[in-house]
Amino acid sequence: MATAGASDGFAPNRTPFKPLIAAADGSNFTYASLHDRVPHILTDVVNDLFAAVERCTGSAGATAEGKALTGELSRLKHEMVTNKPLTPIEDDGAEDIAVWNGWLAAYFPGATWYSAPFLAWEPYMYRRIAALFRRSQHWAGHDFFAARKEATFRASMAAVAKLCARTEALAAQTAGDAAGPALRQVAFAELLQASLWGNQTDLSMFPDLTSDALEAMQARILSGANSAKIVVNDTDRVWQIVSRIKRGRIDIVLDNAGFELLQDVLLAHWLVAAGIAAKVVFHPKRVPWYVSDVTTRDFHWLVDAVRDPSLAGAAGPLPPADAAALGRLGARWAELLADGTWELRDELFWTGPYGYRYLPTEGRDAWEGALLKADVVLFKGDLNYRKLVYDLEWPVSTPFADALGPLSGADAPAIVAVRTAKCDTIVGVDAARAAALFAQQKDWVCSGQYGVIQLSPGRWAVQEDAE
């Protein structure tokens, strides 16, 4: 197999200035994830499947196959906690199996769970899980994370209704040319920052997230109390680009389902209603991923849940006015999907092994087939951020566009990272601000309490410089 490289000296197993972050030194966030957080997730997958098998009323074959799958998942966990080598993924019929196994053989031959970098072992684990299910006869369509994703959304329907009503009002106030630019800018900033803080509801990072904790997060989002914790805030620069778009295209590379997805959908609703976007393309995952990442099924489930909360099993009735607002927005979103104004594209690249600097070479279906056609691309969440800038111990003041490498070129769309910080990797932060934060809270970059909205202007750079 031909190996992938970049003109700036990067390769998946070799970087120009520092090694990829691995768990072997026993002191960083990656170690804590591999030692504690991720085995807990695998245990939850086993327990979920065991419960599903117990409830199974189908054939004896489905029950037997389900029990065999729980054994396979337990073996996968044993490989992880005993630091065994990363073995090839068994063929499940998907086109990316050869990519995954070729990548492992070329760049990480013989690597174990603790010696492999974060961006190797954690995505690999989720792809191994998906392959186990996809190869089965009776459980191939089972989303082992679906129940948790849906439960967190059901538990927050009161806040969902408030946010939907708020966005409906913002759209009415800012539609058409009569709305002043200042009001439209404020509306955009509010919705973009709500999308940022929705990223806190991440079940792969906070697997025991309670409904009370979720409601507290939602209250902070609604109040704007988190604004001071945006350590890099390029919202105004992003608006200067977005405000120039006349019925253009915006792509959103999605992260978490449920409440975060709602924030992304509300932003997309406003962008269309305000006449900024004639098309919004959402990029979900094709297989269940990182516990709460959006699949195509999750997206449609959310639209249906908003259109008719009773169908989603919402806990208790909503006030009639709230239910009506939800119904109107849900019906509108179904129309946008049906007429192609909104599109879902679940390219395999998003669940593949390569960092995003390899989009132009290893992810042409996503890059040339989709993202290059966009005016602006929003990348949501922590994993997308790590894959964008590569999972390195960058000096924190490294410019965001520099860390993007090939994705920041003159032909690229504007790229916006919208992320709450949940791991060691971060760039583009003023050195003095970062030092003050580290003095105040040593683990602030891993806490999920701080966020960034960072811009690489791409082909819009000339116009930005002209201002």
Q: What do these coordinates show?
A:
There is one protein chain. By secondary structure, this protein is an alpha/beta fold. It has two domains: 29-134, Transcription Elongation Factor S-II, Chain A (Up-down Bundle), CATH 1.20.930; 147-465, Uncharacterised protein PF01937, DUF89, domain 3 (Rossmann fold, 3-Layer(aba) Sandwich), CATH 3.40.50.10880. The protein has 18 helices and seven strands. Strands 1-7-6-5-2-3-4 form a seven-stranded mixed beta sheet, sandwiched between helices. β2 (248-253), α10 (259-273) and β3 (277-283) form a beta-alpha-beta unit. The longest helix has 27 residues, at 29-55. The termini are far apart.
From the structure above, extract its key features.
467 residues, alpha/beta, Transcription Elongation Factor S-II, Chain A, Rossmann fold, 2 domains, 7-stranded mixed sheet, 18 helices, 8% strand, globular, Hairy/enhancer-of-split with YRPW motif protein 2
What's the gyration radius in Å?
22 Å
Approximate helicity band: 40-55%
User: Would you report the number of β strands?
Assistant: 7
Low confidence ranges? 202-211
Elements, N to C (H/E):
HHHHHHHHEHEHEHHEHHEHHEHEH
Oligomerization: single chain
Could you report the average pLDDT, rounded to the nearest whole number? 88
CATH superfamily of the largest domain: Uncharacterised protein PF01937, DUF89, domain 3
CATH architecture of the largest domain: 3-Layer(aba) Sandwich
How is the largest sheet built, in terms of strand order?
Answer: 1-7-6-5-2-3-4
CATH topology name of the largest domain: Rossmann fold
Biggest sheet descriptor: 7 strands, mixed
The helix-and-strand class reads alpha/beta
**Gross morphology:** globular
Protein name: Hairy/enhancer-of-split with YRPW motif protein 2
